[in-house]
Amino acid sequence: MYEADRALVARMRMGEQRAFDEFFNANAPRLVAFLARRSSLDPASLEDIVQCALIKAVRNLASYRGEAALLTWLTEICRHELADVRRKAARRPAHLSLDENAVNPLVESQLRAPEHHEPVSELHAATQRTAIMHVLKSLPEHYARALEAKYGDGMSVEDIAQQLGLTTIAVQSLLARAREAFRQRWLESSAGAACRGMQ
Amino acid sequence: MTDPQSPETNPASDRGVEETLTDALSTPPLGEERLARIREAVAQEWRAATAGSSDRPAPTPRSRWVAYAVAASIAAVTIALWVTKPSTPSVSIGSISRLNNAALEVRSGLFQHRKLVAGDALRVGDRLTTSGSMLVNFARGGTLRIAAESRLSVTATTQLSLERGLIYLDFPPASTASNPLRITTKAGAVEHVGTEFEVMSDDHGVRIRVREGRIRFLGKTATLVAGAGTELYAMPGAQISQRSIDTYGRDWLWTAALAPDYEIDGHPLIDYLRWVSRELGRPLDFADAKSRQIADHTILHGSVRGQASLDALSNVLATT
User: Fold this and answer.
1) Is residue A106 assigned to a domain?
2) Which residue among A1, B28, B89, B292 is least packed, with the fewest CB closer than 10 Å?
3) Cβ within 8 Å, pair B39-A28
4) B112 at the A interface (CB within 8 A)?
């Protein structure tokens, strides 16, 4: 049971402002990072999805029973929101006509790349990220979660211990095992990619 | 294609794994302005969801057991009184005009149940839990609209007890305020002063929205009078909060859907327009004096029975 998270939610349900601040500060940036790692959404869409997910969460605080970490519960809500957005996007026409007399200024601004963007380095970074996410996905879930919390969210070992309901020693050990598992899979996948490149 | 193993990170070493993961998994922050916007929107929802909870102390295990013991004692005494109470003929307070469900089961005493259908009387002592919405015409004038999943009791000819759910009361301005109807809830009582208002009650508190006229709220800590366009929120033993609201729009659509039928046949158009404007919560204004004159002198024929207020209005105006 995640007593600390359950207590935080109970304080929020009592209307305690400080509890809300703790909840928001601890989770909102992590949800943004969680989504950013799993999609190529622009900041406005990330903002929308995280806002919708958190609104759903605060409306349904009573349904959080502390059986999973609060962040895990929130990421599940985020996952559903992201799936909804993708479903809706899939229903929209895939092509947009630029021949119309007046192109919507919003569309135009979205189509124009910002000046500081360098497509080649962005492609490189995106490929690297996709490959790493692919490897992480192939790891046992608790390994992937620990690595993401440590290296993606920048959480301390103590914070991860609290989130996962483990001791700090156990988390250090978990991280070491997770890194090793990642290293093995990464080398395998790199070797595989190299072989595929040579064919 | 880009080689996923970049030269500056070497995942073959533990340090390299850490650098690879940090580079790939860290994401740029969303930006203070966007985060602040999210915070504001979420905080607003959170406040609405927990409105009034901040002063409520968490029950300790000890006080909870004491509360259970007291509740059990009260229940035992109540049951004993109920069972031994001599049965007396109960007084009708009005009749069910519309029932959006096949039938309604009503308890009137510990072992007495009866099924009600449209046209049946609602009596003092009746306790009902609605599964669909319903409309009641009071014998004293005025209507009571009850939303689905509401639980209320008729405790006296001039008193209803709303345990949970949503009701709407409409007493036309002409109806007398000398013996006002009182709605009791866990957080306090509401009395009308010739008005239209909505009461929503649950275990946490009561919300009252005044659409027309005034109501008097008798809370545990204070009594206050609220006018049209006001929403009150009260929790048992806590401060009463109030804010301004619109008297028309989406929040009131459920009441319009339960509006009583208006018999237009033989009535002047102006009376019908006044009635519709009250139902929709919007003021009645005429474009010019001639329009007003037409409304005064036009007598309507036919029927709009069973039509929603807005549909009925457009049909009447289209055929007048």
Assistant:
1) no
2) B89
3) yes
4) no
Q: Is B25 on the interface with A (CB under 8 A)?
A: yes
- How high is the pLDDT of residue A101? 45
Domains of chain B as residue ranges with CATH: 92-252 (2.60.120.1440), 261-318 (no CATH)
Size of interface A-B (CB pairs under 8 A): 133
Domain count, chain A: 2
C-beta atoms of A183 and B50 within 8 A = no
* Structure tokens that stand for A5 in this block: 């998270």
B10 touches chain A (CB under 8 A): no
Say if A97 falls within a structural domain. no
pLDDT of residue B1: 39
Structural domain of residue A161, as residue ranges? 128-193
Quick check: B43 and A187 CB within 8 A?
A: no
For A4, list phi and psi in degrees, rounded to 5.
Answer: -60, -45
More confident residue, A92 or B201: B201
The whole-number pLDDT of residue A198 equals 41
Whether B42 has its CB under 8 Å from any CB of chain A: the answer is yes
Looking up tokens 């030269």, which residue turns up? B7
* Least confident span in B1-5, B58-62, B193-197: B1-5
Structure tokens given for B302: 């036919």
Q: CATH number of the domain that A84 lies in?
A: 1.10.1740.10
CA pair distance A110, B163, nearest whole angstrom: 53
Instruction: Specify the long-range contacts of residues B58-67, CB closer than 8 Å, at least 24 apart.
Output: B58/A10, B58/A14
pLDDT in the model for residue B175: 58
**Residue A136 belongs to a domain with what CATH number?**
1.10.10.10
The candidate with the shortest Cα–Cα distance to B318, out of B289, B307, B247, B249, is B307
Q: Say if the Cβ atoms of B4 and A32 lie within 8 Å.
A: no
**C-beta atoms of B21 and A183 within 8 A:** no
CA dist., res. B196 & res. B138, Å (int)? 14
pLDDT in tens, B66-123: 666 766 766 666 555 555 454 444 688 888 988 886 567 787 665 667 788 888 888 8
Q: Of B5, B11, B27, which has the smallest distance from its Cβ to A36's Cβ?
A: B27
Query: Is the predicted pLDDT of residue B56 greater than 60, yes or no?
Result: no
| B86–A contact, CB cutoff 8 A | no
The residue ranking higher by pLDDT, B162 or A133, is B162
Percent share of chain B, pLDDT over 70:
79
